[in-house]
Amino acid sequence: MNVAARVPEAGPPEAGRPEAGRPARRRARVNVPTVTLAHGGGGKAMRDLIDDVFLGAFDEHGLAPLEDQARLSLEGGLAPGERLALTTDSYVVDPLFFPGGDIGRLAVYGTVNDLAVGGATPLYLTCSAIIEEGLAVDTLRRVARSMAEAATLCGVRIVTGDTKVVPRGACDKLYLNTAGVGVLRTGISLGVDAARPGDRVLVNGVLGDHGAAILNARGDMALSSPIESDCAPLHGLIAGLLAAVPTVRFMRDLTRGGLATVLNEAAEASAVGIEIDEAATPIREEVNGFCDILGFDPLYLANEGRIACVVPEEDAEVALAALRAHEHGAGAAIIGRITERPAGRVVMRTRFGGRRIVDMLVGDQLPRIC
Amino acid sequence: MKYVDEFRDPDKARALLREIEKSVARIDTCRHRPLALMEVCGGHTHTIFKFGIETMLPDAIELVHGPGCPVCVLPIGRVDDCVALAETPGVILATFGDAMRVPGSKKSLMQARADGADVRMVYSPLDALRLARDNPDREVVFFGLGFETTMPSTALTVLQAEREGIGNFSLYCNHITIIPTIKAILDSPDVELDGFIGPGHVSMVIGARPYRFIAERYRRPLVIAGFEPLDVLQSVWMVLKQIEQGRCEIENQYGRIVPDDGNRAALEAVERVFELREQFEWRGLGSIDRSGVRVRSAYARYDAERRFAVPSLRIADPEACQCGEVLRGAIKPRHCKVFGTACTPETPLGALMVSSEGACAAYYRYGDLDRIPAEGAPA
After folding, report:
1. What ipTM did this prediction achieve?
2. How many other CB atoms are found less than 10 A from the CB of residue B168?
3. Which structural domains are found in chain A, ordered by start?
4. Which of B177, B221, B325, B353 could form a cystine bridge with B331, CB 3.0-4.6 A?
5. B83 in a domain, yes or no?
6. Cβ-Cβ contacts under 8 Å, B51 against chain A
């Protein structure tokens, strides 16, 4: 069942702004410690779970009547040439809570970042939860609160959602899906096929922290100095970059598959070569050591707060300064450049003085990480 | 990284490369054909590709990627047996990650897991023993494989299981030994090798002495090498020096880890638990005498081959596969008829395309940069 809270301050009066003086509904409370199949049955138990856990976090004032859809309006409407951007992503990370973040935070930042890297301003999110029977209700509350905090930080509102409960073993604790809507202003044209020879490649910080943090949190290696996820919202950083350098050609967040995958996609789509310099590519010492032990390559590790962007050569220094000016871009670096050949391939100049091809990841041994 | 960075210093690499070039200029053979040096160990293959070492060496040196990746030389029949074990009701099959994707005749362990078998990835045989301890109502079978490098840890795990009286743990033993394999390569007619980069971690266990016959009987130099890029470059240079000076010796570049006599405690554990098989089948190389070990009868209760019925069929490599020629260094991966076409990392025909240490996967992944011209200066 789908339940949407109306969005009073975002919608026009006829879309359900509560009448002045109407008393707030009393929030229901789930009084059992774990989620059972009854909470997915469509009856009162489900209604209470939604009210307690999700509305309790996303709709603090408890004023919004529940509908099957969110009704949204855009302040001032869309100007000519402006477009809507829409994205969706599912989150299945294990463990649910890890150093530097949790699945809820990830589900908000991930979708916000997917909108932002296209140049869109994120506005509204949805939230669907698939819950395994037996999950602690408190765990669910923690995740929902974390989502609400993350949304506030990003200036977006979670306006509709859905819950399903599945039998034990049919999913792993909790899966989330968030979709996001944003507005794409005029004058921004980013494309994976837009890289040109001579352009520079930048990243906003050290790579691979999220992937390494998740693997380490699973307890496989028990590192003494825990690596924290880089999970962060990047809409502010990206807005600053686009304001300083409107000529940015291409931008992508470096999630599953990491830097290597994104650069390969750009090289292929733009029919150019990309040469990156290992010495200039920022990777934390602990992450490098972790990868050395396990035989991983940090270029393929997932990130949740990192982007790569391609900018014209003459704008590279301005772009670097714009990234570094933001708290999530302090570790930004120019790591490479676009070449004419070899078209469609990414080559790394190793610190040691050799060169090697950085190919697409084929299959991987890594358990799921985002 | 402290300690590691000093073995990755580009200035020292440049100095070594200058010495290597000087040495090459003084070796007559290089005027007619490239010198073929085989790195026996898959770990070295990995280092060579990861750091782009092939692109730095002069054209007069050709690196031949040898058979030292234990996953790559596993024959199809043994993978099938392992899949059968994994699909036996009540069994948890514990394996190193690399072996998950090796194709059997019908499926890999990865596919068996997708079909419902309980296959767990572990980092050490002791993790498998822990699984047995934690699941007393299940049979845990550890897929043991590797050269002398991993043999001692498997042997110690069997001894530990015995000490603790753990009855639901057993080993499907595919451990192999390096010396008969090097000998088989030296005896094959289509191989022309000028020297060896010797395996570092194997030697940490067996020491330097077992290689003597290579210098004495086959008149080839061998330098036991470490796994950092400077180790590999220095070892290449040491082999060249021997060739230049007409010497054939077993030298040890990896002295910080490898004692001449090996590791006595590790060898004792291996000796207690394992005995040589008359023959063992290698993918691509065929059957090699006394090249594999099995569990001694004293430890039969820990031997999965004795405890479970497995098909034990000998299954020929796919006809199109030229894994054997690649393993012996007779051809380069790109010269194989099916490289990158029928055989890719997504749909590997041979194991060389699967393991991260396999020569074909390394070529496919890190590319054959000789064929791509360099362009301009770094960013």
Report:
1. 0.79
2. 18
3. 2-64+77-184 (3.30.1330.10), 200-357 (3.90.650.10)
4. B325
5. yes
6. 350, 352, 354, 356
